């Protein structure tokens, strides 16, 4: 692999790690469109272009989520009872979601990703969030919510922050604690999603070298090496910087990257 791509994956990992710790997101909203463009430039097969980007993103989110989780835990920012109850649904929903994604064409996945990111971006821009007028549901209710969050997260390879944080704040969980809890929830999403994409891509022909299933391991290793170090920095910044303003900037970045992703896929 050309050293130029090494630098691209390392830089992407650094940016993803900071946003993972800062906003409680896994970074898939950034990784998937950029990886799609990088893979297209390297001549990866068009039919599995987005599938490999999704699987690679999920695998790379694992160490990023772990680092972000540890950083938020040190600041008592994780509601562990919520993590315990939501994890079973998350694992099942994410794993099953990868099987659905494996049967959706590349163009369909790209359009769904872009539409979902447009929704997430608008949510951030107008600061749309339900009024915190209720408490958390019981264990079964939380697990059911996890099932839905996991399923959607698998289709767009996100750590679930754009869904978990609004749900928790709606249930009267403080924003910073919701972000920390979302970071912890991102770990089972990433583990289950990575396993699902690995299984679904197993045996698929015409995949790039050094790809296992739908996971391109050189990108995973290089991105993870940096994101694991920068995620704690993002978590520290979350307690010092105006998160609301940064979320709006992040929203514009997501929209631009999503549009670029669709253009890349449609022109392939």
From TrEMBL:
This is Probable membrane transporter protein. Signal peptide: none annotated. It is a multi-pass membrane protein. Belongs to the 4-toluene sulfonate uptake permease (TSUP) (TC 2.A.102) family. It comes from Chromohalobacter marismortui. Pfam families: TauE. The chain crosses the membrane at residues 6-36, 48-66, 78-102, 109-126, 138-171, 183-202, 214-237, 249-267. GO terms for cellular component: plasma membrane. It comes from the Bacteria. Keywords: Cell membrane, Membrane, Transmembrane, Transmembrane helix. It is found in: Cell membrane; Membrane. The keyword Transmembrane applies. InterPro entries: TM_pro_TauE-like (IPR002781).
């Amino acid at each position: 692999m050309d050293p130029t791509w090494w630098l691209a994956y390392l830089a992407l990992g650094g940016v993803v790690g900071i946003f993972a710790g800062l906003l409680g997101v896994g970074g898939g909203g950034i990784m998937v469109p950029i990886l799609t463009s990088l893979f297209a430039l390297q001549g990866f097969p068009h039919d599995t272009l987005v599938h490999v980007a999704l699987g690679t993103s999920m695998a790379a989110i694992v160490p990023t989520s772990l680092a972000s989780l540890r950083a938020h835990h040190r600041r008592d920012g994780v509601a562990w009872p919520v993590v315990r109850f939501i994890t079973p649904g998350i694992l099942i929903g994410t794993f099953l979601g990868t099987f659905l994604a494996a049967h959706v064409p590349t163009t369909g996945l790209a359009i769904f990703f872009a539409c979902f990111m447009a929704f997430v971006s608008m949510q951030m821009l107008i600061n749309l969030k339900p009024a915190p007028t209720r408490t958390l549901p019981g264990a079964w209710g939380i697990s059911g919510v996890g099932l839905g969050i996991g399923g959607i997260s698998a289709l767009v390879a996100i750590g679930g922050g754009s869904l978990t944080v609004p749900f928790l704040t709606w249930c009267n969980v403080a924003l910073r604690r919701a972000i920390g809890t979302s970071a912890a929830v991102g770990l089972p999403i990433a583990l289950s999603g990575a396993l699902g994409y690995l299984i679904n891509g197993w045996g698929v022909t015409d995949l790039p070298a050094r790809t296992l299933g739908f996971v391109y391991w050189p990108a995973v290793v290089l991105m993870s090496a940096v994101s694991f170090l920068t995620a704690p920095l993002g978590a520290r910044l979350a307690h010092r910087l105006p998160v609301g303003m940064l979320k709006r900037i992040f929203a514009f970045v997501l929209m631009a990257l999503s549009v670029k992703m669709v253009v890349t896929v449609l022109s392939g």
